[in-house]
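Dig into what follows:

_____
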Amino acid sequence: MNVLLLSPLPPPYGGMARWSETVIDCCRDAGDISLDCIDTGHKVKDIVNRTVWQRYVHSVFRIVQIVREISYRCRKTGYQVAHVASSAENGLIRDFFILKALKRRGIKVVYHLHFGRYAEIKKAKTMEYRLLNSNMKKVDMVMAMDPITFNAIDNSFNKVFIPNPIRKEEFHISNRKKAIFIGYVVKNKGIEELLSAWGVLEKKYEGWTLQIVGQVDIEYLEYLKEKHPCVSVSFLGELEHETAMKHLRDSSVFVLPSYTEGFPYSVCEAMYSGKAIVSTIVGAIPFMLAENCGVVCPPQDSESLLSSLEKVMGDEQYRILLGNNAALRAQHLFSPEIVIKQYIDSWAQISC
């Protein structure tokens, strides 16, 4: 089966890009699958400080490039299925033209929702929902990566729930009094709530440190340091993936207090690494950390985040329990061997 994947590739190295690399690598080992990929990501390095030109005008050029690439690839290869990964928001306009180009060539399409806001979007009935719904009507299968999104999608759609695959990380229980955040250092990742909570925690839990790994705008960094002058916090900036994973393995607590998420790869990596995880009740995170695999709290709530972090920082045995549970759940649900087979079954279903 010839499959065309349309999804972001690194750089930059975000969650969807890591997902794309995992799928491509795993499909190389699947004998009956020939997978090609068209990179649909923005080729702008500075994610956290894009200008209006980069966000909108550049997007038009990217759409034209992608549609031309689809036409070129389809002339060379007869694809039975296309797998289109969507991040919603402004990407829905790009998706519209991609789906139109694919359907014009008679290619079956899986539309993969890589975001955890579908239920909220559906309830709000905004322009984003109308465009998303219109795109979903053009495809042969809608794929959700969390059960909340799957249940919110109307049964009139051919829908399936499959969690994301994740490369296995080295399991390493650490007793160090060290917490780590990995992600873009922007407001909607909950960084300000985290620093507010940490200002209290560092006075109560002596010896603990917090490392913050991720791209950050210099002006925003200065603002954070001035507003939250924590002495035990280190901003490490953007790191190579393997370097970031070394810091993760050396930590005992992983924290991601985002306002919104889809299926965050950093949480998966922390699960495989056996870390005690503190995160928020958004996207697929409650599903990922179910069965006592982590602690979740409401987003944009520094008091709840403080309380959640205290639960794990104050009890080493509890941290170890959460980490062991998380590693076992990750191996059971998110291993590439299991998930890629589910993808292949879905592609075969619509290609018949």
